[in-house]
Structures are given as C-alpha cells and as structure tokens.
Amino acid sequence: QHDWNRLEILAQGNRVRVAVNGSQVVDWRDPEPKRLMEGPIGLQLHQNKVPQEVQFKDLLLTTFPEDKLITVP
User: pLDDT at residue 6 above 80?
Assistant: First the structure.
C-alpha cells in the first residue's frame, strides 16, 4: 500500500515520454508544437471518494537532458 513508484517524464519540444518503474508507458507528440513552449510544472493527485495521500521524493529537474529515458533499460 505504501510502495514507491519511480516516474520519469522527458519533455522535449512537442514530444513527451513517460516511464513508470522502468517501463515506457507514454510517447506522445503534440500536433500543435507551439503549445508546449514553456510553462509551470504541476504534480497532483486526482480526488475520489476515499481519503488519499501522495508524497514525492528525490525530484530532479534537468535542463536540456539527453534524448532518452534514463530509467528504461
């Protein structure tokens, strides 16, 4: 119930890739490339009808990362 998941998000230009626990789960390209030029980063938990808690640790933000997910073998 209280396990940690490793989440990696790689956003470069109009492409966003996401990996969870070492497996890529999203590879998406925005059809409107100018839409994602810059903006805030938000981390959230969507509410439902039972009490929930989310915690984040070891957050790392890198400017101009390599073009690969580092948690995916």
Answer: yes
CB 10 within 8 A of CB 65: yes
- DSSP letter (8 states) at residue 21: T
Which tokens hold the place of 59? 């957050």
Domain spans of the chain, in order of start:
1-32+50-73
H or E stretch covering 70: none
12-67 residue pLDDT tens: 989 999 999 999 999 999 999 888 778 888 888 888 898 888 899 999 999 989 99
Cα distance between residue 67 and residue 17, in whole Å: 10
Q: How many angstroms separate the CA atoms of 37 and 4, rounded? A: 31
